[in-house]
Each structure stands twice: as C-alpha cells, then as structure tokens.
DNA sequence: GCATTAATATGGA
DNA sequence: TCCATATTAATGC
C-alpha cells in the first residue's frame, strides 16, 4: 500500500516539487534512539525513508502506550501538524532508520499548490482516524487474548513476514504496550497460542502460523482494516 | 572465550 | 495485578 513515500509518489510529477524536495533535511537515527520528544515544539513533518519506528505516549506512572508502528514510506508527527504547538507523542527508532524532515512553511506551500498530494495526505489522515477509533474499541471491549492477537495481526499486516518470521523484532513489553496489557500477559497468551500451534517463537522473533484462524477469533470485532 | 546484565517464561499470592 | 525465580538470550570485556 505504501509504495514509496507519499511525497515521491505525488511530487516528482510537477515542477513545484524540486524546490520542495530541495529544502528537505535528511538524517539517520540509530536503533533505540528517540528523535521526537513528548512536549517538544512542532516545526514540521517527518517521513521514514527506511527503517521502522514506534510512536508512543507516556501515561500515568511512566508506562508507555504505543499508539502505532510505522514502516518505511510512512509519515511521522502528523498529529502535531497544523494547530498543535507541541508534540503529544514520542517516537523511537526500532532499528537503524533514515528519515527526512520537512519544515512547516515548506509543506504548507506545497499543500496549497499540489492538490493530489493534499488529497493523498487527507486519505492518510482519514485512515489514521479510523484506526484510532478502532483502537479505542479494542482496548475497551476486547479481552487480553484478543488484544494480543489483534496486535499480532496488526504487526503482520504492517511489516509482513520474512524468512517465516515477522519482519520486525519487538520485545514482549512492546507487544504489551501496544495491546494495552502487561509483559506477563503477552507471554502467557503467546505460550497458549504456541500450544495450539497458531504461532511460534524463536527468541524475540515471532512467526504466525495460522493467521486466518487468528483473524477469525477476533473477527466479531472486525477491526484490522488498516493501512 | 567467559562474566554480567537483560529478557523471557512460569508459578503462585 | 504484582512479585519471585529459573531459564535463556544479549552484551561487554
């Protein structure tokens, strides 16, 4: 779905772009490094050129709630764009990641002149909102087991499987922080799923064996209509 | 290579 | 939910 970043897809076509892409700033970020701090002022928008990140928000007693994960080609920090002055989220690289950054002024100029880009961005926002609402439901109505399964399906859709394992390495704690539960609960659900031969694990790597069965188990909550 | 720390897995209050 | 502990993986020297 995200074949190349939004910017490249839309902006290489017309002339405005070269000026725009000229003003971008590129930088890299090592695994575990946080490049957006909660509370920092918003000055623009980030795009992931390559790599993977997690987006989170710190709740009470310092527990992090992972809002979403993002793969290469995706946009980061868009919630703060527009009206908000300060980020309400933090973003950390899950592996070595290359990013590019566009300033607010710069981006506003392009949004006003390149309608197909603006339209694409709007679709992206609409999709995010949809997902965000689905997440509220999942947290409030699904059981722990269902939420963990939901997280696994989400990860599979977003990152896919490579060499039989999910193409991203997450700790059990990170699964927990996404599913809104605890590390122990995730470990327990994983063990149960392994017993039923639905998933397998090797160290931190996770393999989904029967994703259609897992999807069926949470299908009554029909969520996973995701980017 | 080994020693130390971090993460995982289970059991139980 | 929280804590204790055994096992296993990752990291530093």
Automatic annotation (TrEMBL):
SMART domains reported in the protein's UniProt record: cNMP, HTH_CRP
Q: Which keywords does this Swiss-Prot/TrEMBL entry list?
A: DNA-binding, Transcription, Transcription regulation
Q: Which residues form the Cyclic nucleotide-binding domain?
A: 23-111
What the entry lists under Pfam families is as follows:
cNMP_binding (PF00027), HTH_Crp_2 (PF13545)
Under the heading PANTHER family, the entry gives: CRP FAMILY TRANSCRIPTIONAL REGULATORY PROTEIN (PTHR24567), REGULATORY PROTEIN YEIL (PTHR24567:SF26)
Organism for this UniProt entry: Zobellia amurskyensis
Which superkingdom does the taxonomy of this entry point to? Bacteria
Q: Per the database record, which ranges form the HTH crp-type domain? A: 142-212
Give an example GO molecular function.
DNA binding
GO CC terms of this entry: cytosol
SUPFAM superfamilies assigned to the protein according to its UniProt record, in alphabetical order:
cAMP-binding domain-like, Winged helix' DNA-binding domain
Transmembrane ranges, per UniProt, are none
Family matches, as InterPro entries: cNMP-bd_dom, cNMP-bd_dom_sf, Env_Response_Regulators, HTH_CRP, RmlC-like_jellyroll, WH-like_DNA-bd_sf, WH_DNA-bd_sf
Q: What is this protein called?
A: Crp/Fnr family transcriptional regulator
